[in-house]
Specification:
20% of the residues lie in helices and 39% in strands. The protein is α+β, with helices and mostly antiparallel strands. The chain folds into two domains: 2-190 and 288-375, no CATH class; 193-284, no CATH class. The strands form five sheets. Strands 15, 16, 17, 18, 19, 20, 21, 22 and 23 form a nine-stranded antiparallel beta sheet that branches. It has a six-stranded mixed beta sheet with strand order 6-5-25-24-28-14. Strands 8-13-9-10-26-27 form a six-stranded mixed beta sheet, with helices on one face. A hairpin with a 2-residue loop joins strand 17 (209-213) and strand 18. The radius of gyration is 20 Å and the shape is globular.
């Protein structure tokens, strides 16, 4: 397995794209949302990797090793020796997110029934991430590792794109399935937020739209907690996500971040489902726990192979905004957990897709999520 990392900026590529093309080559490209209308880097990638599986998306910042970068395109190229790749994409418009995930999962399984992992990149604004993940899990065997994330647009929430047929396209979801006797995948996801305030019952919700908490308009209650920061919604909502439980006897919490607000209906739209009759509680940041959570995610994602590996790091835009100048501390915690030869690339997202430890896959918000791809060496 050969791996290389590259970076494109307005000045061009930091070094020539490596000659690693082939049907078993995976190319991942993460870039600024403005690059959706930039022709040069995409033409270069298509010329360099005509046979490869090329995926990518817009971001709220690109990850390259322990650095966070903006305004350019971070590219990871991994040429496997004995791993099969199957790519599928579908448009979002007019289709239920569950149906999108089920169709993509079914197409990948049809292309390769022995698929071991599915890596998903989705439109970040027009998709219900929870429903999308449920569709994938319905189509795939329980042991298939489903990971990935939602595209982002900084803190603007205006437009996102994913790569389809080698070029950025708005309103799509794309995925790649990976399989083979030597292929190995590892994954980990951790948060690090503190819960505060009373736990409130979700008295009215439809899918990922929250209307009422304890019988009160959800947006009014949320604005009360935000105070002066409410004027900056929806971006300031990244500072105070919700911890959601599906019922009083459910110990598992998932974190949900707001994507938009509706002043007329006094409602809030989240990246994933908010269960009616569930329980919701506000969260706030603990800097040290955020950084420690990133390190724990890396420990979970470690794969015991004697060879190179590519780790895709997907962290939430809310974590970046909160950590501020300390944002690279969470990446240093990730880098320090892996062997020196591990290549790390990724992006800041509007939602992270990962199994909950070793259990069911779900959409997460405000987490550091890591996926490691590698191959066992051939025995001598």
């Amino acid at each position: 397995m050969d791996i290389a990392l590259s970076r494109w900026s307005r000045a061009g590529w930091d070094h020539p794209l490596p000659a690693l093309d082939g049907p078993s080559t995976l190319v991942l490209a993460f870039g600024d949302s403005a690059l959706g209308s930039e022709a040069e880097p995409w033409g270069d990638l298509r010329d360099a990797y005509p046979q490869a599986a090329v995926l990518g998306c817009s971001t709220a910042g690109e990850i390259l090793g322990d650095a966070v970068l903006d305004g350019g395109l971070t590219v990871a190229v991994a040429r496997f020796e004995d791993t099969r790749l199957a790519v599928a994409s579908v448009p979002v418009a007019g289709t239920d997110s569950h149906d999108i995930g089920r169709e993509l999962g079914a197409r990948i399984v049809a292309a390769d029934p022995d698929v071991k992992a599915v890596f998903v990149l989705s439109d970040g604004l027009a998709v219900n991430g929870s429903r999308l993940v449920q569709g994938f899990t319905a189509a795939c065997r329980p042991e298939v590792a489903i990971t990935g994330g939602l595209a982002a647009d900084g803190d603007r929430f205006q437009r996102t794109w994913v790569v389809v047929d080698g070029a950025p396209a708005e309103g799509h979801v794309t995925a790649v399935g990976l399989s083979g006797p030597r292929f190995r995948v590892g994954h980990g996801s951790r948060g690090g937020w503190d819960i505060f305030g009373p736990e409130r019952r979700v008295t009215r919700a439809e899918g990922n739209v929250l209307f009422e908490l304890d019988g009160q308009p959800a947006l009014d209650l949320y604005k009360h907690y935000l105070g002066a920061r409410a004027a900056g919604l929806p971006a300031t909502a990244l500072l105070f996500p919700l911890a959601v439980r599906y019922g009083p006897h459910d110990e598992r919490r998932v974190v949900r971040t707001i994507l938009g607000v509706d002043e007329e209906s006094r409602s809030m739209t989240f990246a994933g489902d908010i269960p009616e009759d569930g329980l919701a509680q506000l969260m706030r940041a603990n800097f040290e726990r955020l950084i420690d959570g990133a390190g724990r995610a890396a420990e979970l994602a470690l794969v015991d192979v004697d060879g190179p590996s590519l780790t895709v790091a997907i962290s939430c835009v809310g974590r970046r905004l909160l950590l501020g100048e300390r944002v690279e501390d969470e990446l240093e915690a990730v880098v320090s957990a892996f062997s020196p030869g591990t290549a790390i690339a990724g992006f800041y997202s509007y939602g992270e897709i990962s199994p909950i430890t070793a259990g069911t896959c779900d959409l997460h918000n405000q987490t550091m999520t890591l996926t490691s791809f590698s191959e066992d060496r051939i025995a001598a």
